[in-house]
Amino acid sequence: MEDLHSYGWYAKRVAKYMPKGVFKPVPKRLWGGLAYLAIVIAGVLSISLFDWYPFLYLPISLILGASFAGMGFLGHEILHGTVVKKAWIRDLLGAIAFWPLSTGPKLWRKWHNLNHHIHTQHEENDPDSWPTLERLSRSKMIRWIYKLPLFIRAFFAFASLTIQFTAHSLKMFFAYIKDFKPKKQPEVWLQMILPWASWLGLLLLIGWEKWIFAFFIPLLIANLIVMGYISTNHRLNPLVPVNDPLANSLSVTVPKWVDYIHFNFSYHTEHHLFPGMSSKHYPLVKHHIKRLWPDRYHEMAMGKALVALWKTPRPYFDNRELIDPSRGNLYGSLGNGLNPEQIKAKKMDK
User: Fold this and answer.
1) Cα 327 from chain centroid?
2) Which of 22, 67, 153, 262 is deepest in the core (most CB within 10 A)?
3) Phi–psi pair at 3, nearest 5 degrees
4) Which residues have CB under 8 Å from 350's CB, separation 6+?
5) In the Cβ-directed half-sphere of 235, how many Cα atoms lie within 13 Å?
6) Checking DSSP bridges between strand 251-253 and strand 299-301, what pairing results, if any?
């Protein structure tokens, strides 16, 4: 932890090994988005227009949920400027890609591109970092929750992944809306209201039974997929005073076909090193990071990372360790004693 470096420090050393043109936008990524959009339109129309036994809609819901998530991953790329550069086209395409998740492009760039990327895993300034025990203990309800056994908390935490992205997006909207200039605020409001209005309008149009399969279940599935990645991106890493992506980020490994349909979202350390580079090039970035700093780089199979999340508590004790308040047990974080192969707790010193 004492030997931390900024993402610019790493980026400067990796960039000299990268081929020319890697920072140019890659508009071909939009073909994947067009495929997802066609699937979503076809799926919603199939459920809306045909009267089948309700549970026959479930396979379509699963496909819709996966497509909602895929569009969100592409929207993430678009709004980093790695697909198209022109601002109004970027915002338009980003709004369409994030439409199923009802997150506006201006809010996303403020919350994610600026605050999260610049202050990654900073205790106070990263809007996505998990808080310390000291901050959580200010709430009586939170103190009660953390008296429950760890496995019960883990169960409900994993169940909540089905709503976490949507809930956090709404929280970020109300946290940041006042940070926009008064002239910009109506546009930010509109970008939040229009998607929700369209989905609620669909409810009035097709009725709640079909709407559950056309939107509600797909939204839960999309949340689960997206949060499966986001929850592993940083929550096993320490809080840090310096935005060091090799210390504060985790890349997960998934089958190649999953990387293909998720636009290489698994390469998260690489993304924090080069957020303005298309994720198409992240495998090469990973190669050079592992060659230059093999002992610093954190990489784990997605399944193993999720198991580690299940077995460890979330509040931070001293920025480097995670604490289970109900038993006074401490767990290491990545780079600070956490061994995913054999997760063990130690008692907190009196």
Assistant:
1) 30
2) 67
3) -105, 65
4) none
5) 22
6) parallel
